[in-house]
Amino acid sequence: MLNPPLRLLGTAALAGWIAGCATVGPSFRRPAAPATRAYTRTALPRATAAAPGALGGAQAFVTVPRVERDWWRAFGSAKLDALVERALRDSPTLAAAVATLREARQLYAAQAGSTLYPRVDAKLGATREEINGASIGQPRIPQSTFTLYNAAIGVSYDFDAFGGNRRALEALAAQADYRACLLAGARLTLAGNVATTAFLEAQLAAQIDATRAILAAERRQLDITRRGERLGTASRADVLALQTEVDQTRAGLPPLRNRLEQAAHLLAVLAGHPPGAGDVPRFTMSDFKLPVRLPLVVPSEVVRERPDVQAATALLHAATAQYGVAVSNLYPHVSLSASLGTAALTTGALFGPGSAIWSLAGGLAQPLFNAGLKAGANAAQASMQAVGANYRQTVLQALRDVADALRQVDNDARVLRREAAAYASARQTRALVRRQTALGAASYLQWLDADRQLQQIRLSLIAARAAKLADSAALYQAMGGGVLPGGPDAAAAPAAASRTR
Protein backbone atom coordinates (compact mmCIF):
# COMPACT_ATOMS: atom_id res chain seq x y z
CA MET A 1 0.00 0.00 0.00
CA LEU A 2 1.23 3.48 -0.88
CA ASN A 3 2.38 5.84 1.86
CA PRO A 4 -0.03 8.70 2.74
CA PRO A 5 1.99 11.43 0.99
CA LEU A 6 2.25 9.44 -2.22
CA ARG A 7 -1.48 8.70 -2.17
CA LEU A 8 -2.23 12.37 -1.66
CA LEU A 9 0.18 13.38 -4.43
CA GLY A 10 -1.27 10.84 -6.86
CA THR A 11 -4.83 11.95 -6.13
CA ALA A 12 -3.94 15.62 -6.54
CA ALA A 13 -2.06 14.94 -9.76
CA LEU A 14 -5.07 13.08 -11.19
CA ALA A 15 -7.37 15.92 -10.23
CA GLY A 16 -4.97 18.42 -11.79
CA TRP A 17 -4.79 16.39 -15.01
CA ILE A 18 -8.58 16.28 -15.24
CA ALA A 19 -8.85 20.01 -14.58
CA GLY A 20 -6.13 20.66 -17.16
CA CYS A 21 -8.31 19.27 -19.92
CA ALA A 22 -10.13 22.62 -19.95
CA THR A 23 -7.70 24.93 -21.77
CA VAL A 24 -8.46 28.64 -21.89
CA GLY A 25 -7.91 30.79 -24.95
CA PRO A 26 -8.91 30.07 -28.55
CA SER A 27 -7.86 26.80 -30.13
CA PHE A 28 -6.03 27.28 -33.41
CA ARG A 29 -7.94 26.49 -36.56
CA ARG A 30 -6.16 26.39 -39.88
CA PRO A 31 -7.50 29.20 -42.09
CA ALA A 32 -9.77 28.09 -44.90
CA ALA A 33 -8.21 27.78 -48.35
CA PRO A 34 -9.15 30.46 -50.89
CA ALA A 35 -12.37 29.70 -52.71
CA THR A 36 -11.17 31.04 -56.06
CA ARG A 37 -10.50 28.51 -58.81
CA ALA A 38 -8.63 30.77 -61.24
CA TYR A 39 -5.47 32.81 -60.97
CA THR A 40 -6.06 35.31 -63.76
CA ARG A 41 -9.02 37.39 -64.90
CA THR A 42 -9.05 35.81 -68.34
CA ALA A 43 -8.69 32.09 -68.98
CA LEU A 44 -5.31 30.66 -69.87
CA PRO A 45 -4.81 28.82 -73.15
CA ARG A 46 -4.40 25.07 -72.95
CA ALA A 47 -0.87 25.45 -74.25
CA THR A 48 1.61 28.23 -74.96
CA ALA A 49 2.64 29.37 -78.42
CA ALA A 50 5.19 27.12 -80.11
CA ALA A 51 8.54 28.18 -81.54
CA PRO A 52 9.93 26.31 -84.56
CA GLY A 53 12.59 23.64 -84.38
CA ALA A 54 14.61 22.99 -81.26
CA LEU A 55 13.83 26.41 -79.78
CA GLY A 56 10.86 25.01 -77.90
CA GLY A 57 7.49 23.65 -78.86
CA ALA A 58 4.20 24.43 -77.19
CA GLN A 59 4.07 23.91 -73.43
CA ALA A 60 0.81 22.44 -72.17
CA PHE A 61 -0.65 23.48 -68.81
CA VAL A 62 -1.51 20.28 -66.94
CA THR A 63 -3.49 20.29 -63.69
CA VAL A 64 -1.64 18.29 -61.03
CA PRO A 65 -2.17 17.82 -57.27
CA ARG A 66 1.32 19.06 -56.48
CA VAL A 67 4.63 19.89 -58.13
CA GLU A 68 7.27 17.19 -58.32
CA ARG A 69 9.96 17.54 -55.69
CA ASP A 70 12.84 17.37 -58.20
CA TRP A 71 11.16 19.73 -60.68
CA TRP A 72 14.49 20.90 -62.13
CA ARG A 73 14.82 17.54 -63.91
CA ALA A 74 12.11 18.71 -66.32
CA PHE A 75 14.79 20.79 -68.12
CA GLY A 76 16.59 17.67 -69.33
CA SER A 77 20.09 18.59 -68.17
CA ALA A 78 22.12 16.02 -66.28
CA LYS A 79 24.65 18.73 -65.40
CA LEU A 80 21.92 20.89 -63.86
CA ASP A 81 20.49 17.92 -61.95
CA ALA A 82 23.88 17.11 -60.44
CA LEU A 83 24.62 20.73 -59.53
CA VAL A 84 21.27 21.26 -57.81
CA GLU A 85 21.68 18.07 -55.81
CA ARG A 86 25.18 19.15 -54.82
CA ALA A 87 23.92 22.56 -53.74
CA LEU A 88 21.15 20.99 -51.64
CA ARG A 89 23.77 18.80 -49.98
CA ASP A 90 26.64 21.26 -49.45
CA SER A 91 25.09 24.73 -49.14
CA PRO A 92 26.08 26.51 -45.89
CA THR A 93 22.78 28.39 -46.03
CA LEU A 94 20.86 25.14 -45.81
CA ALA A 95 23.21 23.85 -43.12
CA ALA A 96 22.39 26.93 -41.03
CA ALA A 97 18.67 26.42 -41.61
CA VAL A 98 18.94 22.76 -40.55
CA ALA A 99 20.80 23.73 -37.37
CA THR A 100 18.20 26.40 -36.56
CA LEU A 101 15.45 23.84 -37.02
CA ARG A 102 17.26 21.41 -34.74
CA GLU A 103 17.58 24.16 -32.13
CA ALA A 104 13.82 24.83 -32.28
CA ARG A 105 13.07 21.14 -31.83
CA GLN A 106 15.38 20.86 -28.84
CA LEU A 107 13.75 23.90 -27.24
CA TYR A 108 10.42 22.19 -27.70
CA ALA A 109 11.76 18.97 -26.18
CA ALA A 110 13.24 20.85 -23.21
CA GLN A 111 9.98 22.67 -22.54
CA ALA A 112 7.97 19.48 -22.94
CA GLY A 113 10.15 17.65 -20.44
CA SER A 114 9.78 20.35 -17.80
CA THR A 115 6.02 20.98 -18.17
CA LEU A 116 4.41 17.66 -19.03
CA TYR A 117 6.00 15.60 -16.27
CA PRO A 118 6.61 16.07 -12.52
CA ARG A 119 10.08 16.98 -11.35
CA VAL A 120 11.74 14.33 -9.18
CA ASP A 121 14.94 15.07 -7.23
CA ALA A 122 17.01 12.85 -4.95
CA LYS A 123 18.67 14.45 -1.95
CA LEU A 124 21.37 13.04 0.32
CA GLY A 125 22.95 15.08 3.11
CA ALA A 126 24.67 15.18 6.47
CA THR A 127 24.48 17.98 9.04
CA ARG A 128 26.77 18.45 12.05
CA GLU A 129 24.86 20.24 14.83
CA GLU A 130 25.27 21.28 18.45
CA ILE A 131 22.33 21.82 20.84
CA ASN A 132 22.54 24.05 23.92
CA GLY A 133 19.57 23.68 26.27
CA ALA A 134 19.89 27.24 27.51
CA SER A 135 19.29 28.59 24.00
CA ILE A 136 15.83 27.06 24.00
CA GLY A 137 14.94 27.85 27.63
CA GLN A 138 15.90 24.44 29.01
CA PRO A 139 19.11 24.94 30.96
CA ARG A 140 18.91 21.44 32.42
CA ILE A 141 19.42 19.90 29.02
CA PRO A 142 23.14 19.38 28.64
CA GLN A 143 25.02 20.68 25.64
CA SER A 144 25.41 17.98 23.01
CA THR A 145 26.89 17.61 19.54
CA PHE A 146 25.63 15.16 16.92
CA THR A 147 25.53 14.44 13.16
CA LEU A 148 22.17 14.11 11.39
CA TYR A 149 22.05 12.06 8.19
CA ASN A 150 19.12 12.34 5.80
CA ALA A 151 18.05 10.96 2.42
CA ALA A 152 14.88 11.95 0.57
CA ILE A 153 13.11 12.00 -2.78
CA GLY A 154 11.21 15.19 -3.63
CA VAL A 155 8.47 15.52 -6.22
CA SER A 156 7.08 18.82 -7.50
CA TYR A 157 4.48 19.51 -10.12
CA ASP A 158 2.71 22.57 -11.49
CA PHE A 159 -0.91 21.79 -12.22
CA ASP A 160 -1.72 23.15 -15.64
CA ALA A 161 -5.31 23.65 -14.58
CA PHE A 162 -6.08 26.22 -17.30
CA GLY A 163 -3.66 25.12 -20.01
CA GLY A 164 -1.09 27.91 -19.85
CA ASN A 165 1.84 25.48 -19.93
CA ARG A 166 0.30 23.48 -22.74
CA ARG A 167 -0.31 26.65 -24.73
CA ALA A 168 3.33 27.66 -24.27
CA LEU A 169 4.40 24.21 -25.43
CA GLU A 170 2.05 24.49 -28.40
CA ALA A 171 3.65 27.83 -29.33
CA LEU A 172 7.13 26.26 -29.27
CA ALA A 173 5.91 23.41 -31.47
CA ALA A 174 4.51 25.94 -33.94
CA GLN A 175 7.84 27.79 -33.92
CA ALA A 176 9.58 24.52 -34.79
CA ASP A 177 7.10 24.02 -37.63
CA TYR A 178 7.88 27.56 -38.78
CA ARG A 179 11.59 26.75 -38.90
CA ALA A 180 10.85 23.60 -40.89
CA CYS A 181 8.91 25.72 -43.39
CA LEU A 182 11.79 28.18 -43.63
CA LEU A 183 14.09 25.26 -44.40
CA ALA A 184 11.74 24.10 -47.15
CA GLY A 185 11.61 27.64 -48.53
CA ALA A 186 15.40 27.87 -48.48
CA ARG A 187 15.64 24.60 -50.42
CA LEU A 188 13.17 25.87 -52.99
CA THR A 189 14.95 29.21 -53.35
CA LEU A 190 18.35 27.56 -53.65
CA ALA A 191 17.20 25.14 -56.37
CA GLY A 192 15.56 28.01 -58.25
CA ASN A 193 18.65 30.20 -57.98
CA VAL A 194 20.91 27.43 -59.29
CA ALA A 195 18.59 26.81 -62.25
CA THR A 196 18.12 30.47 -63.21
CA THR A 197 21.83 31.21 -62.81
CA ALA A 198 22.65 28.25 -65.06
CA PHE A 199 20.21 29.62 -67.65
CA LEU A 200 21.83 33.05 -67.36
CA GLU A 201 25.31 31.61 -67.81
CA ALA A 202 24.18 29.76 -70.95
CA GLN A 203 22.53 32.92 -72.28
CA LEU A 204 25.63 35.06 -71.72
CA ALA A 205 27.92 32.48 -73.32
CA ALA A 206 25.69 32.38 -76.42
CA GLN A 207 25.45 36.16 -76.57
CA ILE A 208 29.24 36.45 -76.38
CA ASP A 209 29.53 34.08 -79.36
CA ALA A 210 26.95 36.10 -81.30
CA THR A 211 28.69 39.38 -80.42
CA ARG A 212 32.02 37.99 -81.60
CA ALA A 213 30.40 37.00 -84.89
CA ILE A 214 29.00 40.53 -85.25
CA LEU A 215 32.42 41.98 -84.49
CA ALA A 216 34.10 39.74 -87.07
CA ALA A 217 31.58 40.83 -89.73
CA GLU A 218 32.07 44.49 -88.87
CA ARG A 219 35.83 44.17 -89.04
CA ARG A 220 35.65 42.57 -92.48
CA GLN A 221 33.30 45.31 -93.59
CA LEU A 222 35.69 47.95 -92.19
CA ASP A 223 38.68 46.41 -94.02
CA ILE A 224 36.78 46.46 -97.33
CA THR A 225 35.73 50.06 -96.79
CA ARG A 226 39.31 51.11 -96.02
CA ARG A 227 40.46 49.54 -99.28
CA GLY A 228 37.64 51.37 -100.99
CA GLU A 229 38.86 54.63 -99.46
CA ARG A 230 42.32 54.06 -100.92
CA LEU A 231 40.76 53.32 -104.31
CA GLY A 232 38.43 56.30 -104.10
CA THR A 233 35.19 54.28 -103.93
CA ALA A 234 34.50 55.06 -100.26
CA SER A 235 34.81 58.20 -98.18
CA ARG A 236 36.62 58.86 -94.94
CA ALA A 237 33.24 59.33 -93.25
CA ASP A 238 32.26 55.78 -94.23
CA VAL A 239 35.42 54.44 -92.64
CA LEU A 240 34.91 56.41 -89.43
CA ALA A 241 31.29 55.32 -89.15
CA LEU A 242 32.25 51.66 -89.46
CA GLN A 243 35.17 52.12 -87.05
CA THR A 244 32.70 53.52 -84.49
CA GLU A 245 30.48 50.46 -84.87
CA VAL A 246 33.47 48.15 -84.41
CA ASP A 247 34.57 49.99 -81.28
CA GLN A 248 31.06 49.94 -79.82
CA THR A 249 30.66 46.22 -80.47
CA ARG A 250 34.11 45.51 -79.00
CA ALA A 251 33.22 47.59 -75.93
CA GLY A 252 30.16 45.43 -75.37
CA LEU A 253 32.19 42.25 -74.90
CA PRO A 254 33.88 42.97 -71.53
CA PRO A 255 30.57 43.59 -69.70
CA LEU A 256 29.22 40.32 -71.10
CA ARG A 257 32.36 38.46 -70.02
CA ASN A 258 32.14 40.07 -66.58
CA ARG A 259 28.53 38.95 -66.14
CA LEU A 260 29.45 35.47 -67.37
CA GLU A 261 32.22 35.13 -64.80
CA GLN A 262 29.95 36.50 -62.07
CA ALA A 263 27.36 33.87 -62.97
CA ALA A 264 30.02 31.16 -62.78
CA HIS A 265 31.17 32.45 -59.38
CA LEU A 266 27.59 32.52 -58.12
CA LEU A 267 26.97 28.95 -59.25
CA ALA A 268 30.05 27.79 -57.32
CA VAL A 269 28.99 29.60 -54.14
CA LEU A 270 25.41 28.34 -54.41
CA ALA A 271 26.83 24.82 -54.59
CA GLY A 272 28.82 25.46 -51.41
CA HIS A 273 32.23 25.83 -53.07
CA PRO A 274 34.74 28.69 -53.52
CA PRO A 275 34.29 30.82 -56.67
CA GLY A 276 37.47 29.38 -58.13
CA ALA A 277 36.34 25.76 -57.87
CA GLY A 278 37.14 23.99 -61.10
CA ASP A 279 34.55 21.24 -60.84
CA VAL A 280 31.51 23.48 -61.35
CA PRO A 281 30.16 22.81 -64.86
CA ARG A 282 29.76 25.46 -67.55
CA PHE A 283 26.37 25.64 -69.22
CA THR A 284 25.35 26.32 -72.82
CA MET A 285 21.91 26.76 -74.35
CA SER A 286 22.14 23.30 -75.88
CA ASP A 287 22.22 21.80 -72.36
CA PHE A 288 18.54 22.59 -71.78
CA LYS A 289 15.17 21.84 -73.23
CA LEU A 290 11.87 23.49 -72.44
CA PRO A 291 9.52 21.33 -70.36
CA VAL A 292 6.70 20.03 -72.55
CA ARG A 293 4.24 19.99 -69.63
CA LEU A 294 3.91 22.77 -67.09
CA PRO A 295 2.21 22.09 -63.74
CA LEU A 296 -0.99 23.90 -62.82
CA VAL A 297 -1.97 23.44 -59.17
CA VAL A 298 -5.34 24.80 -58.05
CA PRO A 299 -5.15 27.79 -55.64
CA SER A 300 -6.35 25.81 -52.61
CA GLU A 301 -3.50 23.34 -53.07
CA VAL A 302 -0.90 26.03 -53.74
CA VAL A 303 -1.71 27.46 -50.31
CA ARG A 304 -0.91 24.05 -48.82
CA GLU A 305 2.22 23.58 -50.92
CA ARG A 306 4.05 26.90 -50.71
CA PRO A 307 6.56 27.05 -47.85
CA ASP A 308 6.01 30.77 -47.27
CA VAL A 309 2.26 30.26 -46.77
CA GLN A 310 2.90 27.31 -44.47
CA ALA A 311 5.42 29.40 -42.52
CA ALA A 312 2.81 32.14 -42.12
CA THR A 313 0.35 29.48 -40.91
CA ALA A 314 2.83 28.29 -38.29
CA LEU A 315 3.38 31.86 -37.08
CA LEU A 316 -0.38 32.34 -36.78
CA HIS A 317 -0.57 29.11 -34.78
CA ALA A 318 2.20 30.31 -32.46
CA ALA A 319 0.52 33.70 -31.96
CA THR A 320 -2.79 32.00 -31.14
CA ALA A 321 -1.09 29.80 -28.56
CA GLN A 322 0.71 32.79 -27.03
CA TYR A 323 -2.64 34.51 -26.65
CA GLY A 324 -3.83 31.42 -24.75
CA VAL A 325 -0.80 31.74 -22.45
CA ALA A 326 -1.64 35.38 -21.73
CA VAL A 327 -5.27 34.49 -20.97
CA SER A 328 -4.24 31.65 -18.63
CA ASN A 329 -2.27 34.14 -16.56
CA LEU A 330 -5.61 35.60 -15.45
CA TYR A 331 -6.59 32.32 -13.78
CA PRO A 332 -5.36 30.59 -10.58
CA HIS A 333 -2.01 28.82 -10.51
CA VAL A 334 -1.84 25.54 -8.56
CA SER A 335 1.39 23.84 -7.46
CA LEU A 336 2.11 20.79 -5.29
CA SER A 337 5.28 19.35 -3.85
CA ALA A 338 5.99 16.31 -1.69
CA SER A 339 9.00 14.59 -0.26
CA LEU A 340 9.55 11.19 1.31
CA GLY A 341 12.77 10.24 3.05
CA THR A 342 14.56 9.14 6.15
CA ALA A 343 16.69 10.79 8.83
CA ALA A 344 18.89 9.26 11.54
CA LEU A 345 21.85 10.02 13.75
CA THR A 346 23.84 7.12 12.31
CA THR A 347 24.16 5.84 8.77
CA GLY A 348 23.25 2.35 9.94
CA ALA A 349 19.85 3.50 11.17
CA LEU A 350 19.21 5.78 8.17
CA PHE A 351 16.71 3.41 6.55
CA GLY A 352 15.62 1.63 9.70
CA PRO A 353 12.25 1.61 11.46
CA GLY A 354 11.08 4.95 12.80
CA SER A 355 13.44 6.99 10.59
CA ALA A 356 10.88 7.88 7.90
CA ILE A 357 10.01 11.54 7.33
CA TRP A 358 7.64 13.06 4.78
CA SER A 359 6.15 16.37 3.82
CA LEU A 360 3.40 17.55 1.52
CA ALA A 361 2.80 21.13 0.41
CA GLY A 362 0.29 22.68 -1.93
CA GLY A 363 -0.31 26.20 -3.11
CA LEU A 364 -2.84 28.18 -5.07
CA ALA A 365 -2.25 31.70 -6.31
CA GLN A 366 -5.11 33.74 -7.73
CA PRO A 367 -4.38 37.20 -9.14
CA LEU A 368 -6.65 39.66 -7.33
CA PHE A 369 -5.39 42.91 -8.79
CA ASN A 370 -2.82 43.14 -11.57
CA ALA A 371 -3.81 45.57 -14.28
CA GLY A 372 -0.91 44.47 -16.41
CA LEU A 373 -2.26 40.95 -16.89
CA LYS A 374 -5.34 42.12 -18.79
CA ALA A 375 -3.26 44.50 -20.86
CA GLY A 376 -0.87 41.64 -21.66
CA ALA A 377 -3.76 39.49 -22.85
CA ASN A 378 -5.05 42.35 -25.01
CA ALA A 379 -1.56 42.83 -26.49
CA ALA A 380 -1.31 39.11 -27.29
CA GLN A 381 -4.72 39.25 -28.96
CA ALA A 382 -3.66 42.24 -31.06
CA SER A 383 -0.46 40.39 -32.03
CA MET A 384 -2.54 37.39 -33.09
CA GLN A 385 -4.73 39.63 -35.25
CA ALA A 386 -1.67 41.26 -36.86
CA VAL A 387 -0.15 37.87 -37.66
CA GLY A 388 -3.50 36.80 -39.13
CA ALA A 389 -3.50 39.84 -41.42
CA ASN A 390 0.07 39.04 -42.49
CA TYR A 391 -1.03 35.50 -43.27
CA ARG A 392 -3.80 36.75 -45.55
CA GLN A 393 -1.33 39.05 -47.30
CA THR A 394 1.08 36.13 -47.78
CA VAL A 395 -1.71 34.10 -49.40
CA LEU A 396 -2.59 36.97 -51.74
CA GLN A 397 1.06 37.43 -52.70
CA ALA A 398 1.38 33.71 -53.37
CA LEU A 399 -1.61 33.78 -55.72
CA ARG A 400 -0.19 36.85 -57.43
CA ASP A 401 3.18 35.12 -57.92
CA VAL A 402 1.44 32.24 -59.66
CA ALA A 403 -0.68 34.57 -61.80
CA ASP A 404 2.40 36.56 -62.84
CA ALA A 405 4.34 33.40 -63.65
CA LEU A 406 1.50 31.97 -65.73
CA ARG A 407 1.08 35.16 -67.75
CA GLN A 408 4.81 35.53 -68.21
CA VAL A 409 5.13 31.98 -69.51
CA ASP A 410 2.31 32.62 -71.98
CA ASN A 411 3.45 36.07 -73.15
CA ASP A 412 7.15 35.21 -73.39
CA ALA A 413 6.23 32.18 -75.51
CA ARG A 414 4.72 34.60 -78.01
CA VAL A 415 7.87 36.72 -77.90
CA LEU A 416 10.03 33.66 -78.50
CA ARG A 417 7.86 32.65 -81.44
CA ARG A 418 8.18 36.09 -83.04
CA GLU A 419 11.93 36.25 -82.42
CA ALA A 420 12.28 32.81 -83.98
CA ALA A 421 10.28 33.96 -87.00
CA ALA A 422 12.47 37.08 -87.33
CA TYR A 423 15.60 34.94 -87.10
CA ALA A 424 14.31 32.57 -89.78
CA SER A 425 13.58 35.53 -92.06
CA ALA A 426 17.03 37.00 -91.44
CA ARG A 427 18.65 33.67 -92.33
CA GLN A 428 16.70 33.55 -95.58
CA THR A 429 17.72 37.13 -96.32
CA ARG A 430 21.39 36.34 -95.76
CA ALA A 431 21.17 33.25 -97.97
CA LEU A 432 19.48 35.28 -100.72
CA VAL A 433 22.10 38.06 -100.57
CA ARG A 434 24.85 35.46 -100.66
CA ARG A 435 23.46 33.95 -103.88
CA GLN A 436 23.11 37.45 -105.34
CA THR A 437 26.70 38.20 -104.41
CA ALA A 438 27.86 35.04 -106.18
CA LEU A 439 25.96 36.15 -109.29
CA GLY A 440 27.32 39.70 -109.09
CA ALA A 441 23.92 41.23 -108.29
CA ALA A 442 24.96 42.28 -104.77
CA SER A 443 28.21 43.36 -103.18
CA TYR A 444 30.17 41.54 -100.50
CA LEU A 445 29.43 44.45 -98.19
CA GLN A 446 25.73 43.78 -98.55
CA TRP A 447 26.27 40.15 -97.57
CA LEU A 448 28.31 41.20 -94.52
CA ASP A 449 25.56 43.59 -93.51
CA ALA A 450 22.95 40.81 -93.82
CA ASP A 451 25.12 38.50 -91.72
CA ARG A 452 25.54 41.17 -89.05
CA GLN A 453 21.79 41.73 -88.88
CA LEU A 454 21.29 37.98 -88.49
CA GLN A 455 23.66 37.87 -85.50
CA GLN A 456 21.95 40.87 -83.90
CA ILE A 457 18.59 39.13 -84.17
CA ARG A 458 20.25 36.03 -82.76
CA LEU A 459 21.09 38.04 -79.64
CA SER A 460 17.40 38.78 -79.09
CA LEU A 461 16.46 35.18 -79.83
CA ILE A 462 18.95 33.91 -77.24
CA ALA A 463 17.53 36.29 -74.63
CA ALA A 464 13.97 35.21 -75.47
CA ARG A 465 14.79 31.52 -75.12
CA ALA A 466 16.65 32.05 -71.83
CA ALA A 467 13.68 34.05 -70.54
CA LYS A 468 11.38 31.17 -71.45
CA LEU A 469 13.54 28.76 -69.48
CA ALA A 470 13.57 31.11 -66.48
CA ASP A 471 9.79 31.60 -66.76
CA SER A 472 9.25 27.86 -66.53
CA ALA A 473 11.47 27.63 -63.44
CA ALA A 474 9.63 30.58 -61.88
CA LEU A 475 6.31 28.79 -62.41
CA TYR A 476 7.60 25.66 -60.66
CA GLN A 477 8.73 27.81 -57.74
CA ALA A 478 5.48 29.78 -57.59
CA MET A 479 3.53 26.51 -57.43
CA GLY A 480 5.47 25.45 -54.33
CA GLY A 481 8.32 23.48 -55.84
CA GLY A 482 7.46 20.25 -54.03
CA VAL A 483 9.92 20.83 -51.14
CA LEU A 484 7.55 21.03 -48.19
CA PRO A 485 8.66 19.97 -44.70
CA GLY A 486 8.55 16.20 -44.63
CA GLY A 487 11.91 15.27 -46.11
CA PRO A 488 14.79 13.81 -44.10
CA ASP A 489 15.59 17.19 -42.57
CA ALA A 490 12.09 17.70 -41.20
CA ALA A 491 10.89 14.21 -40.36
CA ALA A 492 11.14 14.71 -36.60
CA ALA A 493 9.41 18.09 -36.40
CA PRO A 494 6.92 18.54 -33.57
CA ALA A 495 4.26 19.21 -36.25
CA ALA A 496 2.09 21.57 -34.24
CA ALA A 497 -0.19 21.81 -37.24
CA SER A 498 -1.18 18.18 -36.72
CA ARG A 499 -2.73 19.15 -33.42
CA THR A 500 -4.96 21.87 -34.82
CA ARG A 501 -8.68 21.56 -34.90
Description:
This protein has 501 residues and is of the alpha+beta class. The chain has one domain: Outer membrane efflux proteins (OEP). 57% of the residues lie in helices and 12% in strands. The chain contains ten helices and six strands; from the N terminus they run αβααββαααβααββαα. It has helices at residues 4-19, 78-90, 92-115, 164-231, 236-251, 253-270, 299-305, 307-328, 371-439, 444-478, and strands at 60-63, 119-131, 144-159, 293-296, 333-344, 356-365. It has a four-stranded antiparallel beta sheet with strand order 2-3-5-6, with helices on one face. Helix 4 packs antiparallel against helix 5 (236-251). The radius of gyration is 38 Å and the shape is elongated. The two termini are 42 Å apart.
Give the SSE layout.
Elements: H1 4-19, E1 60-63, H2 78-90, H3 92-115, E2 119-131, E3 144-159, H4 164-231, H5 236-251, H6 253-270, E4 293-296, H7 299-305, H8 307-328, E5 333-344, E6 356-365, H9 371-439, H10 444-478
Parallel strand pairs: 1-4
Antiparallel strand pairs: 2-3, 3-5, 5-6
Helix pairs in contact: 2-4, 3-4, 4-5, 4-6, 4-8, 4-10, 8-9, 9-10
